[in-house]
Specification:
The structure is a single chain. The protein is of the alpha/beta class. The protein contains 17 helices and 12 strands. It has a 7-stranded mixed beta sheet, with helices on both faces. A 5-stranded mixed beta sheet has the order 1-2-4-3-5. The structure holds NADPH dihydro-nicotinamide-adenine-dinucleotide phosphate (NDP) and (2Z)-2-iminopentanedioic acid.
Length: 445
């Protein structure tokens, strides 16, 4: 396989999908040697089949706002690959949503889900709907209108969506209600459900908890731990909240969080009521972090800047794709940061990753580090199938084991001759091999 040729072809065939190209290139660069050692992959057209989604749905979502005005948004579901299990992946509601972003997320999801050890294929969906500023009733009407189309193509053994940016327990509730009404079934469709109607304990916390467990595993390889470390976190949504909660529990001090308007620096640390306030902020229609600094005396708001200029031992981006650029990476390196672990999907730009990988910073890629969210979704599916509910400790301990196993797998496939671990390579190779072998076993379909 020649990566440049495959990419040239893809870019020519599908221009205007930069995020998707970025995600594919990263995986191909990691697996090129494995592909060349396995000529039967090439003769089975494996890469060509892997980089083309099984199918992509787009649909119209008309809805009516509180004033009676009609709006039309676009809905999507990308069913990327189901070689190892039903399509599985979140729904994102954000005005930036387009096919390039959903294909990058769906493609990443294939390998992430493979790493979890659970039987889940890769998919992603969402809408360019802007939840910011909408009333609860408007969110409900939008979710119902979205599900009026989506229900036709999903199912508990076919495709199981969940949350992502802009889609949390509230939205999953409205989506589930409409699915149930349309199908007359109370099944394990959608994960991240409310705890009283099929949701798993720990699912809301799982992505952030998992990222912190993975960070701890990486630090342990150097004889280090989170205790007493200063951590910069970005975002202030679901993933950031889970990460900040667990970081505090394990004795780290979190000094930043961020939103689209800038970041907050709090020298005293973000803990206790400040963590609850993050959630209140996220739930408010404002959706900015500046009020955090007004609320807490020790917090300072830095407008339109990234938190990566703050001196920290550990950096955990938890907001969105391409939020950490090469200047940010240089700042982290200059400030002697020891570990960068991706909570969000693809938060680091390729130039930033290049700099980080050349430095001494330990780098944990999102598809391994943030896999705890979808892994716990997988555990929710298991509980729904068995019609029972595990305790909080049971789910957390399984999540812990899964993150430990993912770390071990990354080490196994990513160990370099000088004894360092290339986690990007390790995660991509391990995630890929399982899916590739399943695709070979199942023939050209
Ligand atoms: P949320 O919607 O709960 O929070 C995302 C937050 O980041 C929002 O507050 C958003 O604000 C903010 N944000 C968006 N752009 C920027 C930016 N440029 N700078 C700073 N903040 C920004 O989403 P999640 O926490 O669920 O998701 C965060 C990331 O984690 C995403 O990359 C997602 O794909 C990934 N992820 C999520 C999982 C999950 O289980 N939820 C699992 C694995 C990964 P605004 O809305 O105003 O833009
Ligand atoms: O990016 C992700 O892994 C998620 N948004 C969670 C997907 C899921 O199905 O739980």
């Amino acid at each position: 396989m020649n990566v440049d040729n495959v990419m040239l072809n893809l870019e020519k065939r599908l221009p205007g999908e930069p995020e998707y190209h970025q995600a594919v290139r990263e995986v191909l660069e990691s697996i090129v040697d494995i592909c060349n050692q396995n000529p039967h992959f090439e003769s089975a057209g494996l890469i060509e089949r892997l980089i083309e989604p099984d199918r992509v749905f787009t649909f119209k979502v008309p809805w009516v706002d509180d004033e009676g005005n009609v709006h039309v948004n676009r809905g999507y579901r990308v069913q990327f690959n189901n070689a190892i299990g039903p399509y599985k992946g979140g729904l994102r509601f954000h005005p930036s949503v387009n096919i390039s972003i959903l294909k990058f997320l769906g493609f990443e999801q294939i390998f992430k889900n493979s790493l979890t050890t659970l039987p889940m294929g890769g998919g992603k969906g969402g809408s360019d709907f802007q939840p910011k500023g909408k009333s609860d009733k408007e969110i409900m009407r939008f979710c119902q209108a979205f599900m009026l189309e989506l229900w036709k193509i999903i199912g508990p053994e076919t495709d199981v969506p969940a949350g992502d940016i802009g889609v949390g327990t509230r939205e999953i509730g409205y989506l589930y209600g409409m699915y149930k009404k349309l199908t007359h079934e109370h099944t394990g469709i959608l994960t991240g459900k409310g705890l009283n109607w099929g949701g798993s304990l720990i699912r809301p916390e799982a992505t952030g908890f998992g990222v912190v467990y993975f960070t701890n595993e990486m630090l342990a390889t150097k004889g280090l731990s989170l205790k007493g470390k200063t951590v910069a976190v970005s975002g202030f949504g679901n993933v950031a909240w889970g990460a900040v909660t667990k970081l505090n529990e394990l004795g780290a001090k979190v000094v930043t969080l961020s939103g689209p308007d800038g970041y907050v620096f709090d020298e005293e640390g973000i803990y206790g009521r400040k963590i609850d306030y993050m959630l209140e902020l996220r739930a408010s229609n404002e959706d900015i972090v500046q009020p955090f600094a007004d609320e807490f005396e020790s917090a300072v708001f830095v407008k339109d800047k990234h938190p990566w200029e703050v001196k920290c031992d550990i950096a955990i981006p938890c907001a969105t794709q391409n939020e950490l650029n090469s200047e940010d990476a240089s700042n982290l390196i200059g400030n002697k940061c020891i570990c960068l672990c991706e909570g969000a999907n693809m938060p680091c730009m390729p130039e930033a990753i290049e700099l980080i990988r050349q430095s001494d910073i330990i780098f944990g890629p999102g598809k391994a580090a943030n896999a705890g969210g979808v892994a716990t979704s997988g555990l929710e599916m298991s509980q729904n199938s068995m019609k029972l509910m595990w305790t909080k400790d049971e789910v957390d301990s399984r999540l812990h084991q899964i993150m430990h196993a993912i770390h071990q797998t990354c080490v196994k496939h990513g160990i370099t001759p000088d004894g360092k671990v290339d986690y990007v390579k390790g995660a991509n190779i391990a995630g890929f091999l399982k899916v590739a072998n399943a695709m070979i076993d199942q023939g050209i379909i």
